[in-house]
Amino acid sequence: MGGPGRYADRFALRVGGCVAAGLLVLAGCSAGSGGARDGASASPAASPSAGSGAASAPVPGTTGASGVPLVPELDEAKQPKDAAGARALLERISVEPEAFGPGIVRSSPFESAPDRWPVLDQGCVWQTSGLPEDVLATATRHFHLPAEGGRGRVRLTTTVTVHRDRTESGWETAHAMEEVLRCPRQVLRDGEEINNLLGASFYLGEQLNGWTEDAFNEFGEYLSEADGGPYRYVWYQAQFGPVTVAVAGKGAAGFTKQEIDALAVQGTSRLMLQAKLALAKGSV
Amino acid sequence: MERLEPSDPSRIAGYRLLGRLGAGGMGVVYLGRTDDGALAAVKVIRAEYADEDDFRARFRREASIAARVDSPWAVRVTGADPDAPAPWLATSFVPGPSLAEAVAAHGPLPPRAVRLLGKALARALGVMHEQGLVHRDVKPGNVLLGMDGPRLIDFGIARGGEHTALTSADVILGTPGFLSPEQAVGRAAEPAGDVFSLGCLLAYAASGRLPFGTGAVDAVLFRTVHDEPEFGPEVLADPELTALLRTCLAKHPDIRPGTRELEESLTEDTPGAGTEWLPDPVVATIAERAAALLALPGIEETVADREAERAAGAPSRRRFLALASGGAVLAAGGGLAGWLALRDDGKRAPAAGPAARSWVIGVHGDLSGPQKAAGQAQERGVRLAVDAFNARSDKPFTLSVATADDAGRADRSAAAAATLIGDPDVLAVVGPTGNASVMPALEPYGEAALALLTVSALAVSFGVADRRSFFQASPLSLGQGSAVNMSLAKAQGARRLGILCDRDGDAEGWQASVHLARTLALFAADATLYPRVVPRGPGEADLEPVVADLLAQRLDGLFYTGTPAGAAKVAVLLAAAGFQGARAADFAAIGPEFLTAAGPAAEGWQFLAPYIGPEAPEVAALARAHRAAYGSAPGFWTAEAHDVANLVVDRLVTAARGGGRPSRAELLAALGQGTFRGLTKEYAFDDQRVVKGNLFFLHRVEGGRLRYVGRAAELPAG
Questions:
Q1: CB count, 10 Å around CB of A237?
Q2: Residue A84: domain span
Q3: B137 is annotated as an active-site residue
Q4: Measured between CB atoms, which of B288, B464, B514 is closest to A181?
Q5: Contacts by residues B242-245 (CB-CB < 8 Å, ≥ 24 positions apart)
Q6: Partners of B560 in the beta sheet?
Q7: Do B605 and B636 reside in the same domain of the chain?
Q8: Bridge-based pairing state of the strands B359-365 and B143-146
């Protein structure tokens, strides 16, 4: 792995660098590490069935400087109760390339198999299995910014996962955080890996998070036998009630961290907005 | 946005500076705030550019142009000083993306938004044209999208430098592509050129495409002069708009409409109240940027340390700094030690001078709230240090202590800071106690150049803020992760460690968990880790299945981070299961509440804390003094606050020997330099003003009480 020494080298920088975390990454700076998912979404859900009843509702009434509430009240009646309802909700939330801006196109294949779920095995290699019991539906879409003008291909994936309620969303994030702790180096598939993962998670009201119930992000280095590296790897995740949305970004030659992060933040913002429109009280 | 750098000013005219929006070759753009709370973008030009021929004249002329553009759709100039050594110009701050950023991020605007955009910008340009002014650089990067409508920015001021937008996403688009044909061939700009540029801009807003394409500059300019514009399908779908844009993009300036005609042709209501003019993703972007501003320091009015301002740059400052940083005078503890040496020689240290003022150390703490035990313990540590100093018969000055209680509440922290800052005799402040109090206090202390030294607010980040006065004099709390590894894995031999990160605690617990995970191999290369994370939820019942899972892993060590109640719950569950491995908890979760709730199950639990045990031999004399003064043993944090107060005393003594009472700013600079040997550790600060080293102290529950075990070594270099 990247090694504890490598981490220790970065530690001091991280502590200082966090202070200057920009406006862009509202989830805040982080010294955490990240479980990486190859576009497919969250972590293997163990059995959260024994968890607490309902997760606590987020701090209400958080508003932006303009007075606009950024996290509306969840309309629990709109939470899907079965897989069919969840798939209909996915349709409303999922985005097309335009969500990322000009130049981004669909990759092929565009959508991952809807009945598979990524699992990080004991050796920190990503596998897939069937959907866990607490996931009603999930959808992962693949996009890219084509290589051009001496710059490489930037890969982006969106993942939207629908649970029954906020409690199950919370466990999905908790398991993703466990992967961060367990595996600083993760093999996405043969010839592709991510290294030196760090990450952070902030509930609404913590640090700079004023826009989602639970902001979870990871970042590290992406390495590819085909494309080289290390390049920026990011995973930006947000939650609204029973829905988690996330964008994974894999950098390429000629792109800065900030450019990759900006794409991921924009995609996540858009997905989060769609989720709020679909599930907030008063929305149609 | 980035934080201010040490060389940045705190204030420019009436603007308190909060951070840097951007920087480039010609200068820096700051985010500023007026005393009445209005945000502004303050652009400051580097002095060397200001000295170039005719620069000031041009700057002055263009600042006056901008000031004359009185339109709701042009960004308002709120102040300028072209004659300052570093000329500056301030405009009202719009927390929205530029049109370039919005289209790049979210795609084209819907037709109605395009027409509203055109209408507003035509009005803004109309105001300019009526006065004989030409913008000359209408492009998406120079239009900010606000909740209530667009704003035209950058009236050619300091062209070639960066503008006042948050960021520039228009590097690819550049200005060619918006230039009129007559400008492309080098003719002077006329109002009709602005209309041409606006036509290009609207086509771009509607379709994401430029009517004369992108690519090499000369190719774009060639097409601008010779080719017909090409519009995207979004434009072509609206014949009325297509026709209008074609006239705007006519090759001959005389054929293009005037701004009034253009505005009247765009049949939409002018944007006004509400946010409905923009698509939701753009609104979300604006809202998020606006939300991020909430993390900026508050508007609490503060009293500037005028003496410090006067003293800045004065000869005494250099003399003082030379003393403070010089090796001979300031070896470890040089000031105090040197003075004591003088005293032993029977010589008098120089007096503070005639009309001596009070020398005061402030304590900003939670003295009545949830962390009052820690806050009061720190106040006592400071008082004991000051009392010991004042007891010297030949002291160069007499110290006193002033306190301000914020009750651990963020909303009272700025007021507590203002109290201490407003007392001109306060030279440095020890505090605050808890993390929540930090953010609101940073800006006032930073502006006043009044050092704020905390021993117990040890979070890793406090957002975007002015940290220039803020010292963290104990290691950041996340550093306990490696200290846990050192104690449990290296010293006690645990090889199968578990982590239970309970998110009922704050985000710092997670940071400590990550730090533990990433440094375990440094201490025991063959150790394995089994991490679990539990989301926030009501009560502690959700811990039970997770603890059962951890127990099933045959662990020989466990670290818990979360709340006192959660730690007690875990302790009870582990005790019931007969768990024999090493048990450690986040120091923030350990205290009377844990001991009471866990009862006998607390026995044997350990924690690695940034504070030394009050019964440690190193602090025995302090403990005796505490007993004499207060009739009881000291609590946690007394020794650390005592150390930090003595650090301040040391630097003050150095200053007194070097020429008298230092200003706040001089003391602030001196505190960040050199080293100081306290009772608990050596103090030296890194460039973030965090104490160097990762020294933690091991404590253990024995006989129902917290017992001090000893110090853990420092984190080895990676």
A1: 31
A2: 4-48+65-279
A3: yes
A4: B514
A5: B245/B199, B245/B202, B245/B203, B245/B211
A6: B500, B585
A7: no
A8: unpaired
Q: Are B561 and B589 in contact (CB under 8 A)?
A: yes
A66:B287 CB<8 A: yes
Task: Report the pLDDT averaged over residues B652-679.
Answer: 92
Q: Which element (helix H / strand E) includes B150?
A: strand B149-152
Residues from chain B contacting residue A4 (CB–CB below 8 Å): 518-522, 718
Co-location of B242 and B135 in the same domain: yes
Domain with B153, as residue range(s), is: 99-293
Q: Do A198 and B688 touch (CB under 8 A)?
A: no
Q: Which distant-in-sequence residues (6+ apart) come within 8 Å of B163 by Cβ?
A: B29, B141, B142, B153, B154
Report residue B113 CA to chain centroid gap.
35
Structure-block tokens of residue B546? 């997770």
Tokens, residue B431: 């505090």
Is A187 an interface residue toward B (CB < 8 Å)? no
The mean per-residue pLDDT over the stretch B555-569 comes to: 97
Number of domains in chain A: 1
In a domain, B34, yes or no: no
Specify the pLDDT at position B324.
Answer: 31
Q: Determine the Cα–Cα distance for residues B592 and B602; give it in Å rounded to an integer.
A: 11
Distances (CA, A) of B64 to B45, B89, B548: 16, 10, 72
Binary contact (B531, A101; C-beta < 8 A): no
Q: Which A residues in the span 161-180 are in contact with B, Cβ-Cβ below 8 Å?
A: 167, 170-171, 173-175, 177-178, 180
Separation of alpha carbons B166 and B96, rounded Å? 8
- Per the listing, tokens 């300036």 go with B253
Task: Say yes or no to pLDDT of B574 above 60.
Answer: yes
Q: Does A283 touch chain B (CB under 8 A)?
A: no
The CA distance from A136 to A133, in Å, is: 8
Q: Is there a single domain that holds both residue B459 and residue B541?
A: no
Residue B355 in tokens: 């009309």
* Distance from C-alpha of B484 to C-alpha of B477, rounded to nearest angstrom: 12
Q: What is the pLDDT of residue A284?
A: 60
Q: How far apart, in whole angstroms, are the C-alpha atoms of residue B99 and residue B106?
A: 10
Q: Which A residues in the span 5-34 are in contact with B, Cβ-Cβ below 8 Å?
A: 5-9, 11-12, 15-16, 18-23, 26, 28-33
Q: How many domains would you assign to chain B?
A: 3
| Preceding peptide of A230 cis, ω within 30° | yes
Q: What is the average pLDDT value for chain B, to the nearest integer?
A: 83
Distances (CA, A) of B153 to B262, B520, B707: 20, 53, 64
pLDDT per residue over B275-285, tens digit each? 467 887 787 77
Q: Tell me: pLDDT of B424 over 50.
A: yes
Beta pairing class for A192-203 and A137-145: unpaired
The two structure tokens encoding residue B285: 């972007």
Say which of B280, B287, B718 has its CB closest to residue A5.
B718
Q: How far apart are CA B515 and CA B535, in angstroms?
A: 19
Give B509→chain A minimum CA distance, Å. Answer: 11
ipTM of the complex as predicted: 0.84
Q: Which is it for the CA torsion A133, A134, A135, A136, positive or negative? A: positive
Question: B479 is written with which tokens?
Answer: 């550093």
Contact list in B for residue A239 (CB cut-off 8 A) is none
Greatest C-alpha distance within chain A: 54
- If we measure between CA atoms, which residue out of B507, B508, B498, B604 comes closest to residue B543? B498
- Determine the Cα angle at B261 with ends B260 and B263, to 5°: 65
- Cross-chain Cβ contact A56/B536 below 8 Å: yes
Cis peptide before B432 (omega within 30 of 0): yes
Which of chain A's residues have a Cβ under 8 Å away from the Cβ of B208?
102
* Count of pairs with CB atoms under 8 A, one residue in A, one in B: 230
Whether B645 and B594 share a structural domain = no
Q: Indicate which residue of B8, B83, B137, B269 is catalytic.
A: B137
Residue B284 lies in a domain: yes
Q: Give the separation between CA A258 and CA B166, rounded to whole angstroms.
A: 14
